[in-house]
Design goal:
With 159 residues, the protein is mostly helical. It contains five helices and two strands, in the order αβααααβ.
């Protein structure tokens, strides 16, 4: 579809993006000989109707996806574990007579515990991001069905 107006460009962008969701832009054919101006008017009205009917704003989804910073992984868990383990190991080592050896053993243990914590946190963040993407994809699909139904009712063929 050739986009000739700002509203058409806005609609095209909204149909293509959304919170990391990739959607295909529908192909809209004016089956009843509608003029490009009439088609742009109909598309704008159907955009508003579909947004109101479904409660989904594809522009908001697109902006959300574009403005959301990429999830940052957990930072410093291994270092924190090493410091905590070294401190605890030094105390235990002092009791046993070798503070340095106790601190070294505690630091190694702390790094391993911190690494495991870091992996669990990263996995939970990945699962949350995937769930949000699925929710956005479902919402966009609902919106696209309403948008298509509106245009089909106005005499357009949608693929």
């Amino acid at each position: 579809m050739k986009v000739t107006t700002p509203m058409g460009a806005l609609l095209a962008a909204s149909l293509l993006a959304g919170a990391g969701v990739q959607a295909q832009q529908p192909i809209i054919y004016p089956a009843k000989g509608q003029t490009p101006d009439q088609q742009n008017k109909d598309q704008g009205e159907c955009y508003a109707w579909a947004k109101q009917t479904t409660g989904v704003d594809p522009l908001a989804l697109a902006q959300q996806g574009a403005s959301a910073p990429p999830p940052s992984g957990p930072q410093g868990e291994r270092a924190k574990g090493a410091l905590g383990g070294a401190a605890g190991g030094a105390v235990i080592g002092a009791i046993a007579g070798d503070t340095g050896k106790g601190a070294a053993i505690g630091a190694v243990t702390g790094v391993m515990v911190g690494g495991a914590r870091q992996r669990r946190t990263a996995q939970a963040q990945g699962q949350q991001q995937q769930a949000q993407q699925q929710q956005s994809q479902s919402a966009l699909s609902t919106y696209n069905r309403a948008y298509s139904a509106c245009l089909e009712g106005r005499g357009y063929t949608i693929k």
